[in-house]
Amino acid sequence: MTLALSRKALSAIAERVDEAQTNGRSLTLPTEAHEGFDMACGYAVQDLLRDRWKVRGRRLVGYKAGLTSRAKMAQMKVDTPTFGFITADMAVPDGGICPTRLLSRPRVEPEIAFVLKPDIAAALRTEADVLAATDFIAPAIEIIDSRYADYKFDLPSVVADNSSSARYVIGGRPRRPAELDLRTIGIVVVQNGEVVGEAASGAVLGNPARTIIMLSQWLEDRGEALEGGSLILTGGACEAQLVSAGDSVCARFQDMGDVTVRFV
Ligand code: 0L1
Ligand code: MG
User: How far apart are CA 193 and CA 191, in angstroms?
Assistant: First the structure.
């Protein structure tokens, strides 16, 4: 595919995004700085970012999907989900502490996380395929961030910023897929003792397993395949909430327990 920007220009953008993610700095949107910067350019930058991470020894452990619920789409005024990659060093332990010093504008969202079995089919096309390929399902909080100045937002730029990935917390009680009705798990988000978000897991595409079908198709379209053993964050079930140092957040998942994190 021919991209609107040269490889050199895309590499320079990946370097700037990497630096901003690492040091908590803000950037101009690539769409404002480069005419023609589109979704294909956004994913090309994301790939270059992933290559840079690998060279530095950051371990890829899976994928994230963003903007998979109506609430998130409405909050960000978009209608297309996005994907990104997650690494081992983005994990914060359940009940642990998340420093905000290197984050610009952290927000939290409750997500259903899947961990796939080590050996899976090349493509997962149905909910049954996904459930058969799933080792366990766990409650999660994703901590997203944006590296763009003045809270500006557009999809190609967000994709270049690895779909706003920053940190994640996996916790609660992991469950086998057969033990759950993935459409109706109640989720409540409590921030400093106050309920700030409520959803059912089916807010994510009717069933968060559908995120994994979309992810599998997206990877196939780019000549890649889902890797066995991957951790997948399926997308926020309700609107993301801004957090800052001093906040405590607990996401409570029906029949799956709580996930908690404190920001300093
Ligand atoms: O995880 C996500 O929902 C990705 C969100 C991307 C947009 C944002 O920064 O809110
Ligand atoms: Mg998310």
Answer: 5
Q: Which ligand is nearest to the CA of 75?
A: 1
Amino acid 72: pLDDT: 83
Q: What's the first-to-final CA gap in the chain, in angstroms?
A: 44
pLDDT of residue 45: 98
Residues having CB closer than 6 A to ligand 1 are: 64, 66-67, 72, 76, 142, 144, 146, 158, 163-164, 235-236, 240
- Ion ligand 2 neighbours, Cβ < 5 Å: 66, 142, 236
Q: What is the pLDDT of residues 25-34, one digit of tens each?
A: 999 999 999 9
The interface predicted TM-score (ipTM) is 0.92
The burial class, CB within 10 Å (0-12 / 13-18 / 19+), for 56 is: exposed
Q: Could you tell me the distance, in angstroms and rounded to a whole number, from the CA of residue 143 to the centre of ligand 2?
A: 7
For 103, counting Cβ atoms within 10 Å of its Cβ (0-12 exposed, 13-18 middle, 19+ buried), the class is buried
- Residue holding tokens 């599998």? 216
Measured in angstroms, how far is the CA atom of residue 68 from the centroid of ligand 2? 8
Question: Any residues with CB less than 8 A from the CB of 135 and at least 6 apart, and which?
Answer: 115, 116, 117, 118, 229
Residue 69 main-chain phi, psi, to 5 deg: -115, 155
224, pLDDT greater than 90: yes
Q: Is the pLDDT of residue 122 over 90?
A: no
Give the integer Cα–Cα distance in Å for 204 and 182.
10
Class of domain 59-263: alpha beta
The per-residue pLDDT for range 160-205, each reduced to its tens digit, is: 999 999 999 999 999 999 999 999 999 999 999 999 999 999 999 9
